[in-house]
């Protein structure tokens, strides 16, 4: 049995941040990734990280703070998320942003995205970020990284601490001893028909596009040792994906956060478009048909952001995924809905904007940011949209030290968790960028807790 101080299970953003932190702390580390490539669901994300008070915001004259970030997270989460976890995020987020910059992660721009009252969605190239962290981890002599190494079970020693990891490598059974504990960063269960069937049968109509390795094995392994779960009642899909996202390219557009409206196949609005796209997904799944449509005009189209995964509308237009027409009647014909219904809906929306009395209560673009505009300027655009199961955002109960908890709120000795596998953080909604943010923050926290270090604060 190989002997290490820490064993990290999962090689996405949380696992790599944990590996780099542990290696730089001088610990002997084994990181196990079951897939052939490092990265997991992190490379499929929207590529945003939620940080406040950064130098990028200051350079653009934006005023933001950790307290505002925390309040937004709690409000978006319906205040059923764990306040202590969210507070820890707020306390540690700026330090982690600077740590990522120091470790070669390139932050490219800032956008206003779901759940933010000020623009704080810091964009990254997720492949660049993963490779930068992987390069740092692989260069450390005390960090061992093994791919194609699925973990099957965890074991406890005589002290009762989780300190044994059983896995395969090249098809051969292996075992590792973790003196300081095991850090689970193995993702969620978006590709587990079994677990989704148990916990989220209401999501059976979603398209499945999460990381292929996200089948919930880490959660099951933690259950065996008494772990509790959080946020299961709030499992939701993600709104904004084109039907072709089931294929190799995960095309999506969030034009509604720039001013588009969302319609069902009867040509009618059914939701306040400024809500978290998890809540928009819930609303869309209550409609009779699987597909809905985002509708907008040239005013919104002019806000296309080149290279942005969520807002590069021009790229989607060139691919033929966005439909374009000179008037609403032609646009309705292109997408197969009633021209009269579309015209009536747009007219009513425009009148509501003018009067400040929107039928669905919309008075911002996203959360508390931005002002909606009327849909009047030709040409007009439509994007067929579905709800996708991208990430589960529910999982193991943890405390602010990233210790996995049992049903009585007590730590399971030697067991830590970070990233998508950890629940309790998002609650009933979702703020864009908080998933990658918490992965980086609590990946590092888990290591420091396991090694008995003081948690770094701003």
Secondary structure: elements and pairs:
Blueprint: E1 2-9, H1 13-24, E2 29-32, E3 48-50, H2 55-59, H3 66-76, H4 83-102, E4 107-111, E5 121-124, H5 126-139, E6 143-146, E7 151-156, E8 162-169, E9 172-184, H6 193-199, E10 207-208, H7 217-223, E11 229-230, E12 238-241, E13 261-263, H8 277-285, E14 292-297, H9 298-301, H10 313-318, E15 322-325, H11 328-335, H12 339-355, E16 380-389, E17 395-396, E18 403-405, E19 411-417, H13 434-450
Parallel strand pairs: 1-2, 1-9, 2-6, 9-19, 10-16
Antiparallel strand pairs: 3-5, 4-5, 7-8, 8-9, 11-17, 12-16, 13-14, 14-16, 15-16, 18-19
Helix pairs in contact: 1-5, 1-13, 3-4, 4-13, 11-12
- CATH level 4 superfamily of the largest domain: FAD/NAD(P)-binding domain
Shape: elongated
Q: Regarding quaternary structure, how should these chains be classified?
A: single chain
Rounded mean pLDDT is 94
| CATH fold-type name of the largest domain | FAD/NAD(P)-binding domain
Structural class: alpha/beta
Beginning-to-end CA distance, first to last residue: 39 Å
Low-confidence spans: none
The main pleated sheet reads as:
8 strands, mixed
- CATH architecture heading of the largest domain: 3-Layer(bba) Sandwich
- Name the beta content range: 15-25%
- The share of residues in helices is 25-40%
Tally of DSSP β-strands: 19
């Amino acid at each position: 049995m190989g002997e290490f101080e820490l064993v990290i299970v999962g090689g996405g953003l949380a696992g790599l941040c944990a590996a780099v932190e542990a290696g730089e702390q001088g610990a002997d580390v084994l990181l196990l990734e079951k897939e052939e490539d490092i990265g997991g669901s992190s490379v499929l994300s929207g590529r945003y990280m939620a940080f406040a008070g950064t130098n990028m915001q200051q350079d653009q004259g934006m005023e933001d703070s950790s307290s505002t970030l925390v309040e937004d997270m709690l409000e978006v989460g319906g205040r059923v998320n764990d306040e202590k976890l969210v507070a820890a995020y707020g306390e540690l987020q700026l330090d982690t942003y600077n740590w990522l910059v120091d470790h070669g992660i390139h932050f490219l721009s800032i956008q206003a995205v779901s759940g933010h009252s000020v623009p704080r969605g810091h964009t990254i190239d997720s492949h660049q970020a993963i490779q930068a962290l992987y390069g740092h981890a692989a260069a450390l002599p005390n960090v061992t990284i093994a791919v194609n190494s699925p973990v099957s079970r965890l074991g406890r020693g005589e002290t009762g601490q989780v300190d044994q990891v059983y896995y395969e490598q090249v098809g051969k059974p292996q075992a590792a001893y973790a003196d300081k504990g095991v850090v689970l960063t193995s993702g969620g269960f978006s590709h587990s028909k079994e677990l989704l069937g148990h916990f989220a049968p209401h999501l059976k109509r979603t398209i499945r596009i999460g990381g292929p390795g996200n089948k919930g094995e880490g959660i099951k392994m933690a259950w065996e040792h008494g772990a509790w779960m959080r946020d299961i009642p709030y499992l939701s899909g993600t709104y904004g994906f084109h039907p072709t996202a089931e294929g190799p390219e995960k095309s999506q557009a969030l034009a509604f956060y720039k001013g588009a409206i969302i319609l069902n196949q009867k040509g009618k609005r059914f939701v306040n478009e400024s809500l978290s796209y998890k809540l928009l997904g819930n609303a869309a799944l209550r409609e009779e048909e699987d597909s809905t449509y985002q509708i907008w005009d040239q005013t919104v189209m002019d806000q296309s952001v080149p290279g942005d995964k969520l807002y590069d509308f021009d790229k989607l237009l060139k691919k033929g995924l966005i439909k374009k027409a000179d008037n609403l009647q032609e646009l309705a014909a292109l997408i197969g809905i009633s021209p009269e219904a579309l015209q009536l809906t747009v007219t009513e929306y425009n009148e509501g904007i003018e009067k400040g009395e929107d039928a669905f209560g919309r008075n911002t673009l996203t959360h508390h940011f931005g002002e909606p505009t009327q849909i009047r300027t030709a040409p007009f655009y439509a994007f067929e949209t579905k709800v996708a199961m991208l990430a589960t955002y529910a999982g193991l109960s943890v405390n602010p030290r990233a210790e996995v908890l049992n049903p009585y709120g007590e730590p399971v000795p030697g067991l830590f968790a970070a990233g998508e596998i950890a629940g309790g953080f998002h609650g009933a909604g979702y703020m864009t960028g908080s998933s990658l943010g918490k992965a980086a923050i609590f990946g590092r926290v888990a290591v420091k807790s396991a090694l008995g270090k003081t948690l770094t604060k701003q």
